[in-house]
Amino acid sequence: METELVSALVVIVIVAGLLAMAIRIVPEYQRLVVFRLGRSIGSRGPGFVLLIPYVDRPVRVDLRERWFDVPPQAAISEDNASLSIDFLVYMRVVDPVSSVVEVEDFTGAARGIAITTLRAIVGDMMLDEVLSRRDQINESMRTKLDEVTNRWGVKINAVEIREILPPSDIQDAMTRQMSAERTRRAAVTESEGTREATIRVAEGDKQAAILKAEGMRQATILEAEGRRQESILTAEGFAEALQRIFAVAQQLDSKTMSLQYLDTLKAIGSSPATKFIFPMELTTMMRAFGDYASRATDGAEEQPASGERPVTVVPDDRGDS
Question: Which CATH number fits domain 66-166: 3.40.190.10, 3.40.190.80, 3.10.150.10, 3.30.479.30?
Fold first, then answer.
C-alpha cells in the first residue's frame, strides 16, 4: 500500500514536471524560437505555447527596442585632424529566428560594425564638415548599419552622435574663431543699425523736402492764380472803360471833339518847356471851325433888325465872264 502511494506520488511529480516543461506563457513583447531536435521550427507566441519536453528547446527573444553606448572612439578626418567621437545606437529585433540563427550576439556585432562605419565616414570628410554635418553623419551610419544588420533580423532605428572632441589646439583655434565671428557679427549689426538710422533720417529729410517743395508749388500756383485773376479783372475793367468811352464818343459831334482838342493843346502849351506839335488833322479841324463860323455868320445875317426888310444880295456874274 505504501509502495503504491509512493509510486503514485512519483508519477504525479513526473507529470507535473513534464507539464511545467511543456507549457510556456509568452508575453506580448517576446517570442519563443523553438528548436526541435536541434532544427529550428519557427517562433511561437505570444500567449500559451505547448512544447514537447526534452525534444523542443525554446529560446526567448525580446522584441522591444534596445540601445547600446559606444565609448569615445578615435577617428581621423580627411585633413588629418584627430577626433574623439562617442555615439548611441538604437535597434530592435524584427525577425526572431534570424536574430538567433544568423548571428551569435547581434548587439556586439552591431557595435563593431558601427565603430568601423564611423571611422570610414569621418575619414572621407574635412574637419569643418564633421563638426557642422552631424545629422548627415548620423543618417549615413544608420543606413550603412541597417544594410548589414538586416540579414540578422535586426532593424537600426537611429544613430545619435553625442560628442565630437577635436584636439586641444584645434579647440583653442575654434574658440578664437568663434570670438572673432561674434565680434564681426556685432560690428555688422552695429553698422547695419547705423545704416538703417541714416536711411531713416535721409528718408525723413526727403519727405520734408518734398512737402516743402509741394507747399511752395501750391503757393506759387495760388499766387499765379491771384495774378491771373487780377489781370483778368483789370482787363475787364479796362475793356468796360473803353466801351463806356466809345459809347460817350459816339454821342459827341465833331464840334465838341474839336473844342476838346483845343483845350488839350492849350493845356499842353501852358507848360514852360519848348514843344513842337504837328497835329495830323489840323486842316480838317480848321475846316470844321470855318464851316461852323460861316454858318453862324449866315444865321446872323438872315435875322434883320425889327422894322427893316431883308436885303437880297445878287451875285455879280460879270466878273466870272
Answer: 3.30.479.30
